[in-house]
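User: Predict the structure for this protein chain, please.
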Amino acid sequence: MGVILITGASSGIGRATAQAFLGAGWQVGLLARRRQALEAVAEGHEDALILPADVTDLAAMQGAVAALVARFGRLDALFNNAGIFAPQGTIDEIDPEDWAASLAVNLTGMFNAARVAFGQMRAQVPQGGRIINNGSISAHSPRPGSVCYTTTKHGVTGLTRTLSLDGRPYDIAAGQIDIGNARTPLLESVAEGARALGQEEPPIMEVEDVARAVLHMASLPPGANVQSMTVMATKMPFVGRG
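Assistant: Here is the predicted structure, written as structure tokens:
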């Protein structure tokens, strides 16, 4: 087992993934903005470290990783998971503040977490580690009205591919998991809206299914890497590279 930092660990996919890693015997840094929510995830687990921080704040991220390393000695993996959904609409309807917020969390936040993790993995002895970025089905094909989210998730794919290339000399592997329709609060609200309108609910899978996939990616030996994995509800329409 090893040491992993999970961003966005207070709810949804992040929370389920944290619980999966703790159950598998990993030492887990739980990072999100809300301490109280993180305390609920960590309850009863001696190997959980609560790290309240905002991924958009580079100094806060540096402090969080320093605290994690002080507690556990190193960093073996990062699940770069924190992200937001901006209000939907065509590009002329998007509030520039929502666009800026999407960039700040979904791209700059991802960059900050990866930057600090990469630096720690490069400096530690023995050198190396693994960075797993949470992409999206939107990193393959957009949904209508998703210009903010889709644009940032395409950016995450570029980040992943560059990290994978730049990390090789330092034994740092990078991969991406693209997720479609996990049972998060957002998808539950979509399903509720469909029911209210008498429409068919979207196919949804459980967040625990995603968590098991991330655990598999992180548990591979140093000589193996999942560069890209798509995990989606079985009955979703096929999504191909555009």
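The mean pLDDT is 92.
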